Amino acid sequence: MSAATAVIAEDEPVLRAQLQELLGAVWPELEVVAAAADGVQAVRALERHQPDVVFLDIQMPGLTGLEVAKHASGRHHVVFVTAYDQYAVAAFEEGAVDYVVKPLDAARLATACKRVKERLRKTPVSLESLLETMARRQGQPYLRWINASQGAEVRLITVDEICYFQSDIKYTRAVTADKECLIRKSLKELLHELDPSLFWQIHRSTIVNVNAIAAVSRDLAGRLIVRLKSRKETLAVSQPFAHRFKQM
Question: Domains of the chain by range and CATH?
Answer without folding.
Answer: 5-138 (3.40.50.2300), 145-245 (2.40.50.1020)
